Amino acid sequence: MKIIVIGSGGREHALAWKLLQSPEVEQVFCIPGNGGTAILPQCENIPIAMEDFAEISRFARENCVDLVVVGPEYPLSLGITDHLLGQEIAVFGPTQTGALIESSKSWAKELMSEAAVITAVSETFTDAELAKTYIREQGAPIVVKADGLAAGKGVIVAETVDTALEAIDDLFTGGFTKVVVEEFLEGEEVSILTLTDGISFRSLLPAQDHKRIGEGDTGKNTGGMGVYAPAPIATAAIIEAVNRDILAPIVATLQKRGIDYRGVLYAGLMISPAGEPKVLEFNCRFGDPETQAVLPLLETPLAPLLLACAQQKLTDFPSLQWRSGSAVCVVAASAGYPDHYEKGQLITGIKAAETAGAIVFHAGTVLKHGDIFTDGGRVLGVTAMGANFNQAIELAYQSVKRIHFQGIYYRRDIGHRVREK
Questions:
Q1: Do 227 and 338 have their domain in common?
Q2: Contact, 76 vs 93, CB < 8 A?
Q3: Domain count, the chain
Q4: Is there a cis peptide before residue 141, judged by omega within 30 degrees of 0?
Q5: For the domain that residue 39 is a member of, what is the CATH number?
Q6: Rounded distance, CA 68 to CA 388, Å?
Q7: Beta-strand pair 218-221/212-214
Q8: What is the pLDDT of residue 421?
Q9: Could you read off the pLDDT of 329-345 as tens digits, one per residue?
């Protein structure tokens, strides 16, 4: 098989790495890829813009590509799947309408209501003053969400009314024309990435992300500063309830609406203190950094699994196989992230980190003249596995300490909820 992976982040490096472990795969092309995929054996970066659908389809045809795997939400929201399907190219990733489950929070809320899925009570606003009136009536804590793509940073959990009002101003002046204001849910967050062919589905191991920039889960939201899997908070009983009461109804409702959804259905959940799962949001793609912790634990070959989704043959996989143990990913970021940060810093120590037993997934990196340089906010994801969380956490931090670039920043408490004292 020849496969194209669309994207340039840590998620895409992890996907390419895992796909190449499938015996059927002879070549992976990353469009456009990053410094890590540039040096991955049997992987080649192709300098085509993710938005250039005509050029991507031309390249796929000329190189006899068997499957295109779309990593980020942005090209999905623009309709890359619709275009490629029109060229009779197999795609793993939902159509543009299906991608609305992430690109429009209000659309997702309507879908959840139709499917009778439990989620936070919310209201949608196109007028800033009406949104502010509602916030003052409801009080804080309260959650404000941009109704559109915001690279994982469009959710503001406001602990005060003033913070929520400021968020409304920031979003409307920042180019958004619609916001969703919803109740604050108590509990612990968990991410469940689910593969679906639009008819049936298979859930991957639950993961728990660390969204805040600061230790102790403080500071601004980011795209994710670290993750571990499998998340113990998602017990077998909770996963059964999620599959029965959330995922199955959503897949059925998408199908009822005539939406061709073949890809990842990413459920961001809040597990209440009583153990009840409620939906915070849905995403239409693999999570980042969740993918970097979940895929290393997957023993079922990934390529035939994703191809089965694209061909609506997922029932060929009655169950997925997993290796025992735990995985932890620590994200190394540029100084200043998620705000202003510099690029072009030389990175050293990656091979030393991998020699120590970790897998280093590149995100914001670029290969120049044989060296790797920083090229983004989240630079690397250092993933380690162990028989338990303590072993995985210790190995991840032993490894990340071997990596150096000017201004390197990483949280030192990833996995604090599962570390045994």
A1: no
A2: yes
A3: 4
A4: yes
A5: 3.40.50.20
A6: 35
A7: antiparallel
A8: 61
A9: 999 999 999 999 999 99
